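Format is chain and fold; as here:
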Amino acid sequence: MVDSGKNNYKITFLQAGEIPHIGVMSISAVLKEHGFSTDVFSIELEKRNIVENMLRLKPDVIGCSTTSVGVKSVMRVVTAIKR
C-alpha cells in the first residue's frame, strides 16, 4: 500500500507520440495524489534536449510508454539516459 504522506520520490515518464497516453496520465495523477513528484515527457513534443531536460529533474524512476511503432525512438532516448 502506498503511504499517502509526502515523500521525496521523483518519477519521470517518457512516451512516444504526440497524443498523451491515458494510462501514463492516470498513473501520474494517482502518484501525485499520494505525494509523488511526477513529470511526463513526449519524444515528439520535446524534440530538443529531452535527455538533458529529463536528467535535470534527477528522477528516481523513469517509466516508458510506447507502441511498437515508437520503440526505436524510446530506446534511443533510454540509451542516451543510461550513458
Remarks:
- The first helix runs from residue 22 to 33.
